[in-house]
Amino acid sequence: MSEPVIKKIDISQLKLGMYIHDLNCGWMENPFFRKQFKLSSQKEIDSIQEAGIRNVYIDVSKGLDAKQAPTREEVRNNLEDAIIQLATKPPEAAIRTSLHDELAHARHVKDQAQKQVVKMMQDVRLGKAIKLDEVEPVVEGITSSILSNSSALTSLLRIKTGDDYTFLHSVSVCALMITFCRSAGMNKETIRQAGIGGLLHDMGKSMIPDNILNKPDKLTDKEFDIMRQHPQIGYNLMERMPGIGPIPLDIALHHHERMDGNGYPEKLKSREISQLSQMAAIVDVYDAITSDRCYHKGMTAAQALRRLFEWSDFHFDPQMIHAFIRCVGIYPVGTLVMMESGHLAVVSEPNDADLLAPCVTLFFNTKSNVYITPQTIDLSKPLGAGGGDRIIGHELPEKWNVDPMRALNLV
User: Fold this and answer.
1) How far is CA 191 from CA 174, 184, 197, 272, 279, in A?
2) Per-residue pLDDT tens digits for 316-367
């Protein structure tokens, strides 16, 4: 059976009879119950346009072709090349603690933060006010872990189940906002306020009915309208908090706005959206699409960065996406990679001075098809000095039936 030929086209090229392989959008923007289908009516094409989708991937082996359109592989290679060009950045302050030395503290911070988010959402449902003095210690704990080693906590927070997603997503967005703001050189108070905004950004979901919030299937239009109320609900709840600042309020209200005006609730465009809300939108989407949910399998970090880069044509500020990619790294901790030596490895420590040369832990020899005793090497060093290998590309864990997080002893 021949491999399908997938091509990327602008929505202006859509024709009846084309087979949609990928709508190239987040699940919340998908206006259809199906992910893949043949276009059979003009109404379907209109729905794609109305959803703010700008380009899609079609399977030309199952429907009409678009002769001059680039293939998915061509698009992917171009994106990889563009992302690799972002692979140098000024060295940041040295990491204080190794990943594994920080893990115990990071686990404690994660557990305490999750418990606090659960409590706050339960309190809101009971009509109780959110208390700022219960939020600030959580943000301080997350900040402390990020300052010690940002990869420890952010790696742990990529491990979610359907039951704890809503709560851990809030903790993840807080941690990523703190990391992103710190990478951008913002002052301590701005970082603190952004962290509070990240932790509380989805507080409005506490008032969304569970049958909508946790629905395993595609939301109906009516349900989607209800879901889209959560930024305004969260803003209204937080506005009553004594001492809350304008930054958390702005993030709560505007983290679903998009640069092309296709976001919500106010359909703001471009510079109408504050810098911090633009940053919150990026980290919110990044965490959402890398998380396993009951209705979709989370992308790898590498796949998610490619998507964000692609979506920056319309939905996000390209320069801000570039800054985020530099912040989290081309190869975030936990990324499965193929080495030039033929080994599978998992990225175990970033290298702020050279994003293409992190520390990796080799654990499987693909040439002899056997697991090996894990060996950590620093790719920034030459052979004989702890290095001597090179990453040749990302790998999908399901292809090799391995769990990169388990290889790092994170689970």
Assistant:
1) 10, 10, 10, 21, 12
2) 999 999 999 989 988 999 999 999 999 999 999 888 778 889 999 999 999 9
